[in-house]
Design brief:
Blueprint (H helix, E strand, L loop, with lengths): L1 H25 L3 H39 L1 H37 L2 H37 L7 H26 L1
Helix pairs in contact: 1-2, 2-3, 2-5, 3-4, 3-5, 4-5
């Protein structure tokens, strides 16, 4: 329950910070109210996806510890820490991509389409090259840095990176669809 409480508190803090900074843009006349509809059109997929990701992230740890034991849980935890690096990089990019996509959308449909296709292609390429690198070099990496007990963590690492980053790549499509 502490894990879910920490995520809920972080989400609440993020909501209040976003509301504080966005309030001047969203309050006022009719033109400002149109901005609310644009923000909601862009943000609804993320609002739907976040609780689901929290639930999956918490439930898989609970069931893994209960059903598989602490040895497997240790390997999973190690892989989860390393997969977080990839998730953090993609998440940081997507945090910047939303406002940039909105700016490109206002500069014209043709420019927005070209930039979005380039961004999507680059994200997908980096993801698959990174995933292939983890699959090929991961076992060697774990064997060099950690005891032999953790060599099986590579399987978890590949699955965790794939499962966490694919929704982030698809989130780049939300900007295109919503805007």
């Amino acid at each position: 329950s502490g894990y879910f409480l920490a995520l809920a508190l972080a989400a609440a803090a993020g909501f209040f910070a976003a509301f504080y900074f966005a309030f001047p843009l969203l309050s006022g006349g009719v033109a400002r109210r149109k901005n609310i509809l644009l923000v909601l059109a862009y943000g609804w997929p993320f609002a739907m996806m976040a609780p689901l990701q929290w639930a999956i992230s918490g439930f898989d740890r609970f069931f893994l510890a209960k059903e598989a034991g602490l040895e497997v849980m240790g390997g999973y935890a190690l892989a989860a820490k390393f997969s977080f690096v990839g998730v953090a990089l993609f998440s940081a990019f997507l945090a910047a991509w939303g406002p940039a996509a909105f700016r490109y959308r206002n500069s014209g449909e043709a420019v927005f389409r070209v930039v979005h296709e380039l961004v999507y292609a680059c994200l997908t390429f980096v993801f698959f090259v990174g995933l292939a690198s983890v699959a090929v070099l991961g076992r060697w990496f774990f064997d060099v840095l950690f005891p032999a007990d953790y060599s099986g963590s590579v399987v978890y690492l590949v699955l965790l990176v794939y499962g966490a980053v694919v929704p982030l790549i698809s989130a780049s499509l939300y900007a295109y669809i919503s805007l």
